[in-house]
Amino acid sequence: MEIKLIDKNGKPAKAGLAVSEATFGREFNEALVHQVVVAYQANARTATRAQLGRGNVSHTTHKPWNQKGTGRARSGMSSSPIWRGGGRAFPNSPDENFSHKLNRKVYRAGVRSILSELVRQERLSAVEEFVVDSPKTKQLVDKIKNLGYNDGLLVLVDKFDENLYLSARNLPHVLVIEAQYVDPVSLVRFPNVLATKGAVQKLEEMLA
Hints:
The protein is an alpha/beta fold. It is 33% helix and 12% strand. It has a 5-stranded parallel sheet. Strands 1-3 form a two-stranded antiparallel ribbon. Strand 5, helix 5 and strand 6 (174-178) form a beta-alpha-beta unit. It starts with a strand and ends with a helix.
């Protein structure tokens, strides 16, 4: 099978780029993609939140009022969870584990499914190379406009390019990453994906 190959002006080439059908021609599996995306986001979480239980809050152990004779409900101390300023009944722990176990084969199958759906929706294109002469954001913006991309764009490159990285880091709708570090969330998030020939080859090697 082939995917769309464009030139530096954004026009389709006479012949597309031949790719592996096992990587870019897979049937879309929505449940699998959902599982992969959720697992990736969960594994990226850091358990930094923490709440105080009734044993951790600052309080006095003095009984607020007598047990009997006041007509009020009995109360022992101000650290009770039902009191303002009291501790939480079931506090969140900072060492909580949010990770999801995901087999490598399942992860690769999910990424292949995403890439295949991008090809079917004509949101994935290939280009010979994608470079900028100097680390200038304006130069990169003009280059992207010349290619015909006005919305968000994910650029997959085969090797690190400092000029390209510095030019794109201030653009919230543009992300440049190496193919070996591609993740399912970025593939789903951006409306368009542009990959260099070298990046496509790396994807096929990684997901084979």
